[in-house]
Write a structure and sequence with these properties.
The protein has 508 residues and is of the alpha/beta class. The chain has helices at residues 40-46, 57-68, 97-106, 124-133, 147-157, 176-183, 206-214, 259-269, 290-301, 304-311, 322-332, 336-359, 367-387, 391-398, 402-423, 429-454; strands at residues 11-14, 18-21, 26-29, 35-37, 51-53, 72-74, 87-93, 113-119, 137-141, 162-166, 170-172, 189-198, 224-226, 239-243, 273-284. It is globular.
Length: 508
């Protein structure tokens, strides 16, 4: 039986993007615009430290709620020293014996086991010999069934509490697995994922320098909770530590791409927590030539269609409220009428935001800032979507309209310049822009190809923002369906809970 209560002494702290306003009893996430109003018990627990230490049910419920809303992360101290015997490493692979040897050589001692799943290798004897040299168990598929099936086979053979899925082309840093296991001290964490960086190369090309700064596998320096339609919407399966009892049906074996995203979203929907921990570093052998690199980007794009079929508009390329979208689109027409419509839409959004803030007792001082955040976010999403998901449509329109060509060109350059500045790439701007646009063209082509094959436009359609709903038990506690819960936090009544149930996402 798994207990959902956080252990005594567990510490969480507000994330850097959260500020306290309105006398300190309102938390505002300056990244997402989400707001939470604190009741007096929560205000007292946070005090002046912006930290919560779990000592009883109330502090545990507050810590849980803040983490669940992405406003707080666990605070760790010292070097992680976890019980590695509770962890089995599963390596799905097809051929690639040299890469497997490199990975096995990097693993720490004291693991609960190492399983290499040979997914129909041509030279299975060589892979067997390499694995035998490191006392790793080999399970063979007579024919290739795909990475999802290989991971499920390995998980089914493991008998430890935790499983680390490591692709054969990665190398974990010495402390990576210990650091990820430490995240499992929270009993609701189903998956902990590391930051994935590139393996060093002797002679880096401008493509490898672009990938170093902008790899699809690297989710950045800021950790946090992973959930669809958030800053961290997925984690790649190249390296994951998973609580075995949370896997249930495991990876969807019918999916040969985006099966990792699907698993994460199913676990989150079931009430589990997925965390990204960039302090754990795993190195990956990135593709270094344009042909394989572009094909891989397009392959990733084809995953949008099966995700849309399973998860609906969670895969939407753009998620914006109506009025800011109208303001941005109207202004982008570069006409007097469009400018007027955009101004009216922006002012209307400001009025709605102020009304909702006042209604919820938060004061209206933050309304201009929240409205500006919404407008800037909408414009940024629009520029990215125009150049990534919807470039085929933009191309067709550009052949018919000089104004569309101008808007598209400005969006392509402005978004690329902003992205270059954000990631601080060790690559000059012209070549970065070229690589970034090729990246988007390949991914977008994959999205359209997948949509055509699935005969569905859902992967291409924008969606409205997700509005968070309060949970039925009134205290924000998730309720995983795969492991029975027995938590003192669940006994906390809504009227005693430390976070005001009126808390809202960004007023729309």
């Amino acid at each position: 039986m798994i207990k959902a209560a956080l252990p005594q002494g567990f510490r969480v702290g507000l994330v850097p993007s959260v500020v306290r306003c309105h006398g300190g009893d309102v938390l505002l996430d300056t990244h997402s615009g989400a707001m939470t109003r604190l009741r007096p018990p929560a205000f007292d627990l946070l005090a002046d430290t912006d930290q919560v230490i779990v000592t009883d049910a109330t502090s545990g419920a507050l810590a849980r709620a803040l983490m669940h809303r992405g406003m707080a992360d666990p605070l760790w101290s010292g070097t992680p020293q976890e019980n590695l015997s509770s962890l089995t490493v599963v390596i799905p692979v097809r051929d690639g014996a040299e890469a497997v040897a490199r990975l096995l050589d990097s693993l720490p001692t004291g693991l609960g086991g190492v399983i290499v799943v040979d997914d129909g290798s041509v030279d299975s004897q060589r892979l067997q010999a390499v694995s035998d040299g490191y006392a790793a168990r080999v399970i063979r598929h007579t024919s290739s069934r795909g990475p999802a099936a290989a991971r499920n086979t390995g998980a089914g053979a493991a008998d430890t509490e935790f499983i680390a899925f490591l692709d054969s082309d990665v190398v974990p840093d010495p402390a990576a697995l210990n650091t990820l296991l430490r995240e499992m001290r929270d009993p609701l964490v189903a998956i902990a994922a590391p930051r994935i960086l590139d393996l060093p190369v002797t002679r880096p090309s401008w493509l490898t320098r672009y990938e170093h700064a902008r790899s699809s596998l690297d989710l950045g320096t800021q950790g946090g909770r992973v959930a669809p339609a958030t800053r961290l919407s997925y984690v790649p399966s190249a390296a994951l530590v998973i609580r075995r009892c949370s896997l249930a049906a495991g990876f969807d074996e019918s999916m040969h791409v985006a099966e990792d995203v699907d698993l994460v979203w199913r676990l989150v929907a079931g009430g589990w927590t997925v965390r990204y921990q960039p302090a754990a570093i795993v190195r990956h052998e990135h593709r270094a030539t344009f042909g394989p690199w572009l094909r891989r980007k397009a392959f990733y794009g084809t995953g949008a269609a099966p995700l849309a079929r399973r998860h609906g508009d969670l895969v939407a390329p753009m998620r914006v409220p109506p009025l800011p979208a109208l303001a941005v689109v109207a202004t982008a027409t570069l006409t007097p009428v469009g400018a007027g419509v955009g101004f009216v839409a922006a002012v209307s959004q400001l009025g709605i935001t102020a009304y909702r803030l006042k209604r919820d007792g938060n004061g209206i001082a933050a309304a201009p800032v929240l409205t500006a955040m919404s407008l800037v976010s909408t414009a940024a999403q629009g520029a990215a979507m125009l150049n990534r998901h919807h470039w085929p449509l933009a191309l067709v329109l550009a052949t018919r309209s000089r104004r569309v060509r101008a808007i598209w060109a400005v969006a392509a350059v402005a978004e690329g310049v902003a992205d270059h500045r954000r990631v601080r790439a060790d690559l000059d701007l012209p070549r970065y822009l070229l690589a970034h646009r090729l990246d988007d063209l390949a991914y977008g082509a994959g999205v359209w190809w997948g949509a055509i094959r699935a005969r569905s436009v859902r992967p291409l359609l924008p969606a409205l923002p997700i509005r968070r709903k309060r949970s039925a038990n009134g205290c924000g506690m998730p309720n995983p369906s795969n492991c029975q819960l027995n938590s003192p936090n669940q006994a906390v009544r809504a009227d005693a809970f430390a976070v005001d149930p009126r808390e809202k996402d960004t007023p729309r």
